[in-house]
Amino acid sequence: MATPIPPQQSIHPYQTSSELEPYKIPINTYISQNSDHLVGVLSASVIIHRGRVLLIQRIADDDWPNVWEVPGGVANGNEKILDCAVRELWEETGLRASAVMAMLGEFE
Fold first, then answer.
1. Cα gap 103→106, rounded to integer Å
2. Whole-angstrom Cα distance, residue 65 to residue 104?
3. Residue 5 has what pLDDT?
4. Annotated domain spans of the chain
5. Is the dihedral of CA 3, 107, 15, 52 positive or negative?
6. How far apart are CA 75 and CA 53, in angstroms?
7. Global pTM?
8. Which runs of E-coded beta strand occur in the chain?
9. Cα(54)–Cα(48) distance, rounded to whole angstroms?
10. pLDDT tens track for 3-18
C-alpha cells in the first residue's frame, strides 16, 4: 500500500485543461462559494484505459464492506479539489496521475 502524502506536502505534478479552473481552488473556498447546497467535498478518479474502468474493492471490515468503487475520498482542509482526486488515486492504488482530463459531474 502507498504511503499517504502529508496534507502540507505537494503532490506530484500533473497536467490539466483550462476548463477545470473552477476546481483548482481550495476545498474551503469552493464550499464557501457554494454554501447554499454544500457542506463537504469528496473527489474521485475515474480511470479508463483501453476501454476498461479501474475499480477498487473496499476491505471486508470497512463501513461498506467489499464494495467495488472508483478511487476517491474526502478532501483535506485547504487541499485543491483536483489535488484531492490525484492524491486519493495514489494513496489507494499507488498510481500516479499524469493528467486530469475532465470533470464528470457534481452530485448532491
1. 8
2. 26
3. 47
4. 15-100
5. positive
6. 23
7. 0.80
8. 15-16, 42-44, 48-49, 52-53, 56-57, 68-69, 72-74, 99-100
9. 7
10. 554 444 557 899 999 9
What does the pLDDT look like over 33-74, one tens digit per residue?
A: 888 887 778 889 999 889 999 999 999 998 999 999 999 998
The span from the CA of 36 to the CA of 49, in Å, is 37
Residue 20 has pLDDT above 60, yes or no: yes
In the structure grid, which three cell numbers stand for residue 12, read together?
506530484
SS3 15: strand
The answer to whether residue 1 scores a pLDDT higher than 70 is no
- Mapped onto helix, strand or coil, the DSSP state of residue 87 is helix
Cell of 21: 479552473
- Per the CB < 8 A criterion, the answer to whether 45 and 101 are in contact is no
Q: How far apart are CA 70 and CA 108, in angstroms?
A: 18
> Residue 68 in contact with residue 12, Cβ under 8 Å?
no
Q: And the C-alpha cell for 8?
A: 502540507
